[in-house]
Amino acid sequence: MKKFVALVGTNTVKSTNRELLKYMQKRYADDAEIEVVELKGLPIFKKSEDLFIPQQARDIADKIDASDGVIIGTPEYDHSVPALLSSALAWLSYGIHPLMDKPVMIVGTSYGTLGASRAQAQLRQILDSPELKATVLPSSEFLLGHSLQAFDDNGDLKSATESQKLDGLFDDFLDFVDLTDQLDHSKKLHEQQAATFSWDNGTTGDDK
After folding, report:
1. Which of 54, 76, 84, 113 is the most exposed place for a label (fewest CB within 10 A)?
2. pTM higher than 0.85 for the full model?
């Protein structure tokens, strides 16, 4: 059985993105073990001379390392990902590289009609950055709009159409994880680049 880490990309107490990830955890329990992981509590990213990384970030990195893939649930704030999620990804690329070549599925909810579409597009760009180099499921977006009305009292999606769409994307992700496991040529190069990267002399990520 596959093991996935699902990152809640917000610190909002009542988040429909968290609700969606918990719904996936329950719905796909026969296909994968999904651990919903909170990012709240992480400090805002700050570069230090001693490359200090908060223990919470290291713990999340260890969970990602031990997983077969990652699911990220992101809301959209001002047409972009939340500062918490951006900061967390900065910590996860600061001397550690748990997302490198890791299969990632992106989902998102919003109170309006767009379903975090711009945030998802931005998140794809971030995950493709040289310091992260995640492998994102292509041509797939799960955009859940009007999310405050989307779930019933049991935490299940009310719309059969939305559930079926999510089912199809999750099945694709399961296949995608198996496929990316076979693509190991670039992985070796990425590992070598990560091992020799210097934050003082590196050609990417110098502003961190």
Report:
1. 113
2. yes
Q: What CATH class has 2-196?
A: alpha beta
**CA gap 166, 170 in Å, rounded:** 6
Contacts of 78 (CB under 8 A, 6+ apart): none
Contact 18, 10 (CB under 8 A): yes
* The pair of three-digit structure tokens given for residue 58, joined into one six-digit string: 């290291």
Name the pLDDT band for 198 (thresholds 50, 70, 90). low
Count of CB atoms within 10 A of residue 191's CB? 13
Give me the amino acid identity at 183: L
Task: Estimate the share of the chain in helix, then strand, then coil, as percent rounded to the nearest 5.
Answer: 40, 15, 45
Which of 1, 6, 3, 2 has its CA nearest to residue 105?
Answer: 6
Q: What angle, rounded to 10 degrees, do the helices at 83-91 and 117-127 form? A: 10
